[in-house]
Amino acid sequence: MPTILSTKLLRPAQRELCLSAGLGLVAYNALEIEMLPVEIPMDHENLIFTSQNAVRAFLQKAQGRDLSPYRVFCVGQRTAALLGAHGLQLIKSCDYASQLAPYIVENHPEKKFLFLCGQQRSQVLPELFDKAGMDYREVAVYSSHPRPRAYRREFDGILFFSPLGIRSHMMENSLGDSLLFCIGDTTAEEAAKHSKNIMIAKRPTVENVLVQAINHFRYD
């Protein structure tokens, strides 16, 4: 029976999807999230989020506030769902920052933005905003720290969800002949430093990474 390693703990439905397909599953969190004690300015109407962790930091700060004036732009289906669940007005959601940034520059060049992110965020959005002369403020509200765990075995497949997750895993492990399933291009670029056995998800979601691994080993 093929066994895969997920470098992110999976939801019960995700685990069941894997196990019902006849795959062995091992999972752990390769990263630890630390919320930073920073002040979040609440006077910006236009907010940008590229992760669920940034949304959670904002919601914690915004407790008791009227959220209706805020207009939000985000990256990721899960991020969009979390924003919608709290009644925030979602203007635009994209799968990647490389899609969201051009949209904002083209459609809202006159607006001021607050970009809430992690300390290890991608350069894509700030670089394009700076080039376009956009009026924005960036605040890092959380940090991701490596949480390596050693596995004295080789897995048929390993699921990776960020470049930092790969770097964390490599602190205590080698990849051998494992097939690496990556959530997106940036993660795959990091994986390519260590292996040529790489598959990239068709959409950047945990479910898509998992389904791709299931389909590969089910029909291999």
What does this protein look like?
- The structure is a single chain.
- 35% of the residues lie in helices and 26% in strands.
- With 220 residues, it is α/β, with parallel strands linked by helices.
- It folds into 2 domains: 3-30 and 149-219, Rossmann fold (3-Layer(aba) Sandwich); 33-144, Rossmann fold.
- The strands form 2 sheets. It has a 6-stranded mixed sheet. A 5-stranded parallel sheet has the order 2-1-9-10-11, with helices on both faces.
- Helix 5 (124-132) links the parallel strand 7 (112-118) and strand 8.
- Helix 4 packs parallel to helix 5 and helix 6 runs parallel beside helix 7 (185-191).
- CA-CA gap between termini: 12 Å
Low-confidence stretches: none
What would the principal axes of the Cα set say about the shape? elongated
* Number of E-type strands: 11
Please indicate the count of domains. 2
Order of helices and strands: EHEEEHEHEHEHEEHEHEH
Number of helices: 8
Kindly summarize this structure in a few lines.
The chain has helices spanning 12-20, 52-61, 77-85, 97-107, 124-132, 163-170, 185-191, 206-219; strands at residues 3-6, 24-27, 31-35, 46-49, 71-75, 89-94, 112-118, 135-146, 157-160, 179-182, 198-200. With 220 residues, it is an alpha/beta fold. The chain has a six-stranded mixed beta sheet.
